[in-house]
């Protein structure tokens, strides 16, 4: 049998590269399926959502094979796969979706009803998301392949742009989804909370959508410097000045048209509270600075259970949100996992025809599979990088 290796969560703060089973055309229950394909992984990325699990902030059990941001080459296909061929280079949406249920037919693939027995929505290598094996590995199985996979039209062209195209599996559509749902369009003013990879993807998406000004807020000075390097204004949340005051210094008014939360449930307070974890800090600050009648896109992750939370109520997903403020200002809130298929084709075309440089925006650094534990540690330290794992050495220098 062919060999396989993958990145395995072994306990809070720990990941290891281990020998794992070679994938088979079976579902998480072990049932034979014919609608899937096996992929040789070309690139697979470390995501901030992975870090939540590795930090011990979810109910993930040791032994979980990580990785939901996957790009690969088809090496085997099931008998029911009609429209893909061995040798095709494809992007894998992080959503596992059947393509048959009500929500999939509504393009809400983040909440597929048939791929997870415990709740709506499935994903690769993630806690409570259906048991699908993760793709931070050499090889991986993808089900419902004809529906899920995005085939790149020209393999050679795609490999030339693989650092950009690898972002189509998650963070580029996720950032774009947050910007679209926040109402970003030509001439708008936008505030993006968080200068990590998803935040930078949202900022680049806002620029692609024609925003007049994109402001990024964070506490990490290296990440803020990177945001400025791609043309964003920034606010440093370490400062005692309020977010509204800092926005006024940039725009002349204390509000923006559109706001995007790219931080999620591990948020911290601003200014004097900067070291204290305040899970609702970002949501409350966005309600303060979003204009009346505005919208707030929330691609940042929030969980139903957070065993590592400092606040007792947050352990069960209950946050102290100033909902009355959002109600009074008639805000619209858009939450949930991004339905990647809704956006990935148009974003692929934007990459292929040089309308966006998403790898530059998120500051890609390519590493080997064996370097994955080091990549996790560096990412957790707050470096302004997006780590892309290159398991077979196929990404050109």
UniProtKB/TrEMBL annotation:
List each copy of the Alcohol dehydrogenase-like C-terminal domain by range.
197-264
Q: Which GO terms describe its molecular function?
A: formaldehyde dehydrogenase (NAD+) activity; zinc ion binding
State the PROSITE patterns in the record.
ADH_ZINC
What is the superkingdom listed in this entry's lineage?
Bacteria
Keywords, ordered alphabetically:
Metal-binding, NAD, Oxidoreductase, Zinc
Q: What enzyme category does the UniProt record give?
A: oxidoreductase
Q: Which residues form the Alcohol dehydrogenase-like N-terminal domain?
A: 35-146
Coiled coil spans: none
Q: Where are the bilayer-spanning segments?
A: none
Protein family membership: Belongs to the zinc-containing alcohol dehydrogenase family.
Q: What is this protein called?
A: Formaldehyde dehydrogenase, glutathione-independent
Species of origin: Spirosoma sordidisoli
């Amino acid at each position: 049998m062919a060999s396989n290796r993958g990145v395995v969560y072994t306990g809070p703060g720990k990941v290891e590269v281990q020998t794992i089973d070679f994938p088979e055309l079976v579902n998480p229950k072990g049932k034979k399926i014919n609608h899937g394909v096996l992929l040789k992984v070309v690139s697979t990325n470390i995501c901030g959502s992975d870090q939540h699990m590795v930090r011990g902030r979810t109910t993930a059990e040791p032994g979980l094979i990580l990785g939901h941001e996957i790009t690969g080459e088809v090496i085997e296909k099931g008998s029911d796969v009609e429209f893909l061929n061995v040798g095709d280079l494809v992007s894998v949406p992080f959503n596992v979706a059947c393509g048959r249920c009500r929500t999939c037919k509504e393009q809400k693939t983040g909440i597929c009803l048939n791929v997870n027995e415990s709740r709506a929505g499935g994903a690769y290598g993630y806690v409570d998301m259906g048991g699908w094996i993760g793709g931070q590995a050499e090889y991986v199985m993808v089900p419902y392949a004809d529906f899920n996979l995005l085939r790149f039209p020209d393999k050679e062209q795609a490999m030339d742009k693989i650092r950009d195209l690898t972002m189509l599996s998650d963070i580029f559509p996720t950032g774009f989804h947050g910007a679209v749902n926040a109402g970003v369009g030509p001439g708008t003013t936008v505030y993006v909370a968080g200068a990590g990879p998803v935040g930078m993807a949202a900022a680049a998406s806002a620029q692609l959508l024609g925003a007049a000004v994109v402001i990024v807020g964070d506490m990490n000075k290296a990440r803020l410097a990177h945001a400025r390097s791609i043309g964003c204004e920034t606010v440093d949340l370490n400062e005692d000045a309020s977010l509204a005051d800092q926005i006024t210094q940039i725009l002349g008014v204390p509000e923006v048209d559109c706001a995007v939360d790219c931080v999620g449930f591990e948020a911290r307070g601003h200014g004097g509270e900067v070291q204290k974890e305040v899970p609702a800090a970002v949501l409350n600050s966005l309600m303060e600075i979003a204009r009346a009648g505005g919208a707030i896109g929330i691609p940042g992750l929030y969980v139903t259970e957070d065993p590592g939370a400092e606040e007792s109520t947050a352990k069960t997903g209950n946050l102290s949100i100033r909902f009355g403020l959002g109600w009074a200002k008639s805000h619209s809130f858009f939450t949930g996992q991004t339905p990647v298929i809704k956006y990935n084709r148009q974003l692929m075309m934007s990459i292929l025809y040089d309308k966006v440089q998403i790898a530059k925006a998120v500051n890609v650094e390519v590493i080997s599979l064996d370097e994955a534990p080091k990549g996790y540690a560096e990412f957790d330290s707050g470096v302004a990088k997006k780590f892309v794992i290159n398991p077979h050495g196929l990404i050109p220098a």
